[in-house]
Specification:
The complex is a heterodimer of chains A (209) and B (183).
Chain A lengths: L3 H11 L25 E6 L5 E8 L2 E6 L3 E8 L2 E12 L8 H8 L11 E12 L2 E10 L2 E16 L2 E13 L19 E13 L2
Antiparallel strand pairs in A: 1-4, 1-10, 2-3, 2-10, 4-5, 5-6, 6-7, 7-8, 8-9, 9-10
Chain B lengths: L11 H25 L5 H29 L12 H32 L4 E2 L3 E2 L8 H36 L14
Helix pairs in contact in B: 1-2, 2-3, 3-4
Classes of the chains: A mainly beta (209), B mainly alpha (183).
Chain lengths: 209, 183
């Protein structure tokens, strides 16, 4: 859809809906807003069917971990993330690499310092359409350090059991040292690699608007 | 000095295998002892990563060494050995080869069971030998440590034997494995 805002404005004005296909079921006439507001969609995470994982090199060998506790909201027009707002909040202390000793070390002050910085946060206020799907650009905050980060992803909406859902997947490369995750002896990258690939496969459910 | 073995003396290649593996065993024990004393952290990780890489190196060398031994004649034990001495010598050598396989393999399995894949000096990653399992890991820790102590014991026996040949029997058993000795 090339002109989402224009499309929404026209659909709202036409009231009846269905005259212009904005890529989703048109708003029911009764809900037509008086102001030319966009047909806003608010998606929230379905945690049971979503995953946020990361892979890293430990002493040159590939290892994986996951963040089991996180929240995601996506606010956009219709079912097109472009121009929308994506927010991710991660409970860092809940990280799980399948090894308690390693997890305790990761939570410690020189690495994630989870006690002091319990959450990691990504807020993208700029989402653009790209050749491969979409790209969210915004502020990524880890261990209290914020950096502008671009995260490519794909988005597919579907209707399941009568409800609108969105599948959002992608991966991003994060350099832990950019965020200070690794102080003192952990600045060295031979045992714990600097580059971490974060991959996410999210199922989002759209709230009725 | 000849590269290959003769019936009277170990060649340069066999000697190199022998003494390099001796040196690496000393390095291994040192790395393990130092790592054991450390709390979880970067230094311990580093020492264990080196220990694993050296261990895999020993495994590779032992495989090559056995191959080389199979392709070569080897100096026999002296004629004047008593039957029990002969048996003890064969047993010690067989035990050493067995342990030099079992130790790195049990260590590799241990790492796999813990869920920490092994990397050879950061150059390549080895496949996991067993699935991740804490009970299996705990059992392999005991196995690996027991085998290590057994190796130290058998090495002590081996060294004692070599010295006995040299100083008591005054034969050339030790000399023929030493570089730079005239034969």
């Amino acid at each position: 859809m090339r002109y989402p805002k224009l499309c929404q404005a026209l659909a709202a004005t036409l009231l009846a809906g269905g005259a212009l296909d904005c890529g989703h079921a048109a708003a029911p006439p009764a809900a037509a807003p008086a102001a030319p507001a966009a047909v806003a969609s608010h998606y929230a995470l379905d945690p049971a069917r979503s995953s946020l994982e990361f892979t890293f090199l430990q002493a040159g060998a590939k290892n994986t971990g996951r963040f089991p506790r996180f929240a995601v909201t996506l606010d956009c027009s219709g079912a097109d993330p472009a121009g929308g707002r994506l927010e991710v909040t991660v409970e860092v202390a809940a990280l799980d690499t399948g090894d308690k000793d390693r997890d305790d070390t990761l939570r410690s002050d020189d690495l994630f310092a989870a006690a002091k910085f319990p959450q990691a946060h990504f807020l993208a206020t700029r989402i653009v359409k790209t050749a491969g799907g979409y790209e969210a650009e915004g502020a990524l905050t880890i261990r209290g350090v914020t950096r502008e980060t671009k995260v490519p992803f794909t988005f597919r909406e579907a209707t399941e059991g009568g409800a609108a859902v969105g599948y959002l997947t992608g991966k991003a490369l994060v350099r832990r040292l950019d965020f200070g995750v690794g102080q003192g002896e952990w600045k060295a990258t031979d045992q714990a690699g600097n580059e971490v690939t974060v991959s996410f496969a999210l199922r989002l459910t759209r709230a009725a608007h | 000095m000849a590269l290959r073995n003769t019936t009277r003396r170990w060649g340069a290649i066999a000697q190199t295998f022998h003494w390099v593996i001796v040196a690496l065993i000393i390095v291994q024990v040192t790395l393990a002892e130092k790592a054991d004393d450390l709390p979880n952290g970067m230094r311990k990780l580093k020492l264990l990563a080196q220990h694993k890489s050296v261990g895999i190196t020993i495994l590779m060398l032992v495989i090559l060494r056995l191959g080389w031994r199979a392709l070569n004649p080897h100096p026999p034990l002296p004629d004047n050995l008593k039957p029990y001495e002969r048996k003890l010598a064969h047993f010690t050598h067989a035990a050493l080869y067995t342990l030099l396989f079992a130790l790195p393999l049990s260590g590799w399995m241990m790492s796999s069971a813990r869920g920490f894949p092994v990397s050879w000096f950061g150059f390549f990653q080895l496949p996991d030998l067993v699935p991740k399992s804490r009970p299996l890991y705990d059992a392999l820790v005991t196995t690996h440590h027991t085998l290590a102590w057994t190796l130290i014991g058998v090495v002590a026996l081996h060294v004692a034997g070599a010295l006995k040949h040299h100083f008591v029997h005054k034969d050339d058993v030790l000399r023929r494995m030493l570089p730079f000795t005239r034969h």
